[in-house]
Structure formats: structure tokens, C-alpha cells
Amino acid sequence: MKKLILSFIALFIGAQMFAQQDAQAKKILEKVSTTTKSYSTIKLKFLYIMDNRAEKVQDTTKGTIYIKGDMFKLFFKGNEIFSDGKTIWTHQFSANEMTISEPEEGDEDALNPTTLLTIYEKGFKYQFMGEFKNNSETFYQIDLYPENPNAKSYTMIKLKIDKANSRLTSVKMVGKDGIDYLIELTQFKPNVKVADSMFTFDPKKYPKNIEINDMRD
Description:
By secondary structure, the chain is mainly beta. It is 7% helix and 46% strand.
């Protein structure tokens, strides 16, 4: 999950091929950004798929994310992870444990779902790969290539965008190690009612014996 939510969620080819950003891709992505940022809140349901091409093994997990500005709440793999933009709380249900930490600037593995829908805005070159139909729906495909590929664990990120509503529907990271990570958005609900208290830790709402590990400096 972390590897797809980097700034998200490329292929090492000659940088001279992408000296200028693909104009059509840029136009589509700008529209996606404008649409996404127009919503006060977003609720997403998703499938997270790990595909080990070498071993021919796949693993699929469901998850849910609530996003409000730079705040988020994520339910995934028996964990509840939430942030008010300054602090991150990770609640591991099975261990009855709460870990408190701070976002690390520039940390590639930093979990930040708020960047998922605008992953392409910084640090990438991009290319429009065309449009295709799936049943009655039409989608765009745009491939992202990191500006500093040697520093990344993946070769490219593939975006699938719904043409009709300018919404991102999937993000696929192609790993250098032969393992790909895919997030398929199965539900997209904008402007849902979400209280700010949802993104902060209230000890009264948790068991009294919960173990708290504060990792902040």
C-alpha cells in the first residue's frame, strides 16, 4: 500500500524523450486535479492487489479511505490509520496497540493517502498512452515516469482515468523487483459528511488498556 501512496503511488528511458511534458496528458491531469480539489471530502473504497510476476502469486485486500484536505482515515489490513495533517496514529486492532508518529518529509514509504488522487503533480514526467473502452465506459491511460528514476523502486506508474467525470480509477506501480502494486478504486463518494474529530485520537473512544507507543521526538 505504501509504495502506491507516494509522491505515491518509472521507466528509465532517455530523459531527452520527455524534455517537455506531454501536452494532452497535462491537459487531462489538470482537469483531474481541478475536479478532485473541488470536493470538500472524499470517501474511497478500493482493492489493493500485489502481483508477484516472478512467483506468479497475487494477494488482494480491501480497504476504505476518508480524505478531508490534508487529513485522512484509512482502514486496511486490520489497521486503522488516521492523521490530522500533523500527527499520524496507527491502531493495530489485533495487538490493541496505538502508535503515534509524525510524517517524514521526503520518506518514500510515508503513508499519505491524501496524495493518491494527485500523485502525478510533483516529481514526474508523463505521457498520454491513449483511451480505451470497458463496456460502455471510456478511460484514459497516462503513464508517469519519475524525474529521478534511480532513486525509486519502481519503473513507472500507470494511471487509469474515467473520461466522463475526470476521476482517477486506478493506480498501478510497476516494480523493478518484478512485483507490481495496484489500487483499484471500487467506490468514489465526494462531499460526504465527515467531522474533523474523525482524524484525531480520542482516548475515550478506545479501550483503557490500549498500549500507546509515542514515536515522536
